[in-house]
Amino acid sequence: MTPTRTTKLERGRSVLGPALELIHTGRAPTRAALTAELGVTRATAGAVAAELESLGLITVDSRPGAASGTQGRPSHRLAVDPGGPVVLAAQVHADGFRAALVGLGGHIVATAPARRAVAADPAQILGDVVEAGAGLLESTGRRCVGAGLAVPSAVAEPEGTAINPLHLAWEVGAPVREIFTHALAQARISGPSGESTAPGHTANDINLAALAEHRHGAGRGAQHLLVVGTGHRGVGGALVLDGRLHTGSSGLALEVGHLTVDPVGRPCHCGSRGCLDVETDPLAFLEAAGRDPGPEVSLLERSQELIRTAYETDTAVRGAVGTLIDRLGLGLAGLVNILNPDRVVLGGLHRTLLETDGDRLRTVVADSSLWGRSGSVPVLPSSLAHNSLVGAAELAWQPVLDDPLGALTA
């Protein structure tokens, strides 16, 4: 091998990870775009694309073509390989859990039916999660290169413990990452190289939702992205700065659910009153609408269905929507004043509230915040159906994105 060839190959391998991430997030749909984004020669970009293709991660069109609406030299199109490897992604929440297989690009390949019960023993529920994922792998025959888990709790780093699983019957400090990894080993779920057990990556569900929305959804392109949402119980928030989650010194940053929006409101688990966590989640909505929450269905699904079917005809439902919007708007205004994001994305029931009466919500935010008043902070609905699942997959994909060759051939 000539020195020139050796240098070209080494240079190409040094940008394999950045190249894969550009294709994974849709920022390099062609080899020309990849060349420009990486700042390398066309020959180097071609070598990089060829190596990622040989690893089974992407596809490269054999014949170059011009993208629709563009001018200039046609370029080979790049895409994640739809038949390539997957990761096992799972989410546990107050009303149950779901497992899925997710490929590069945030594409959900297969999902197991949602379960409606969460055991008090985290080892049991995480064993069930992994069992469901193993069933998907067996039925699809896909190669697994990792596993990620989203949980409704702050996860302390580096220990991987759930320190405030408020809406689950788990003990505080449950070692969820260790339990998850053990369950993966028991089920013989493989890691990136195919020879070892997949490590269990675990993080807070709203943090992972924010990561997914930033890479693949409504937050794509934002430099300072604030995501706030309520799923089945409670309220969470996350901040993505320059493409990276802001998690604080030990993974516990941005507990936005404990901002006070009604000083004489409901008692909160934190010891205060009127926090976002208890004033703007599905349980608060159902109570404000005069409905019995009931044990038989998801609180989130029941709330969304009630808004969809009764908002126009039921004054109690319409009033509950207005009340929650006003409380949520006050909380968002405070966050905008403190964090100065360039975009806000809302998920779960908050997304439904925004879609139901976005003008009212944006007005409350604008009237209560310095930056919101200028109209420079767009408030958008999340665009991914299962963003916490996709975010859990991002955790598992990260070692491959960092070093594709090393991760898959070690």
Automatic annotation (TrEMBL):
Domain of life: Bacteria
InterPro entries from the UniProt entry: ATPase_NBD (IPR043129), ROK (IPR000600), WH-like_DNA-bd_sf (IPR036388)
Annotated Pfam families: ROK
PANTHER family found in the cross-reference section: BIFUNCTIONAL UDP-N-ACETYLGLUCOSAMINE 2-EPIMERASE_N-ACETYLMANNOSAMINE KINASE, ROK (REPRESSOR, ORF, KINASE) FAMILY
Similarity comment text for this entry: Belongs to the ROK (NagC/XylR) family.
Record-given protein name: Regulatory protein
Native source species: Streptomyces nanshensis
